[in-house]
C-alpha cells in the first residue's frame, strides 16, 4: 500500500505542476490523469485490507477512516473533472474519446465509493453529455452512462 500511495502522491504532484489556465488540458495532462485514476483504483482495492490490519480499539483508526473518506471526496472531484474534460469542446475529439475511455474503465469501481451527492451529479452530467454529443463521442458517452449506472465493486 505504501508504494502505491507514494506513486499516487507523485502523480498528483506532477499534475499540480501544470499551471491552471483557460487553455484546454494537453494530451500529456490527460494521460497523466488517466494513470492517476488507474493508480486510484489500485489504492481502492487495498484500502479495506489496510484498515483491517488495525484492531477496532486502535486510537488511530477514526483518523484513518476520516482520511479514507477525504480520499474518496477527492476521487469524486477527479471523476467530475474528467467528465468536464470529456465535455470540453476545445479539447480535440480524439482526446475526449480517451477521457471517455478511461472514465468508463475506472468510474464503475470508484464512483460507488464517493459521496452520494457527487455520484448523482456525475450521473446527471454524463446523462447530459449523452444528449449533447453525436457520432463516436455519443457512443462513448453512452458507454460511460451504462458504466456509471451499473457500478461494480471490483475491477
Quickly describe the structure:
This protein has 155 residues and is mostly helical. The chain contains six helices and no strands.
Task: Name its key features.
single chain; 155 residues; mainly alpha; 6 helices; 76% helix
| Distance between the amino and carboxyl termini | 17 Å
Mean pLDDT: 93
Number of strand elements:
0
- The helix fraction, in percent, is over 70%
Shape: globular
Number of helices: 6
For the record, the count of structural domains works out to 1
Low-confidence stretches: none
Bin the strand percentage.
Answer: under 5%
Task: Please provide the ordered H/E string of secondary-structure elements.
Answer: HHHHHH
The radius of gyration over CA amounts to: 16 Å
The structural class is: mainly alpha
Question: Please, could you describe this protein's structure?
Answer:
This protein is mostly helical. The protein has one domain (2-16, 24-149). It contains six helices and no strands. The chain has helices at residues 2-16, 27-52, 61-87, 93-110, 116-132, 135-149. Helix 3 (61-87) runs antiparallel to helix 4 (93-110). The longest helix has 27 residues, at 61-87. It is globular. It starts with a helix and ends in a 6-residue tail after the last helix.
Secondary structure layout plus pairing:
Elements: H1 2-16, H2 27-52, H3 61-87, H4 93-110, H5 116-132, H6 135-149
Helix pairs in contact: 1-2, 2-3, 2-4, 3-4, 3-5, 4-6, 5-6
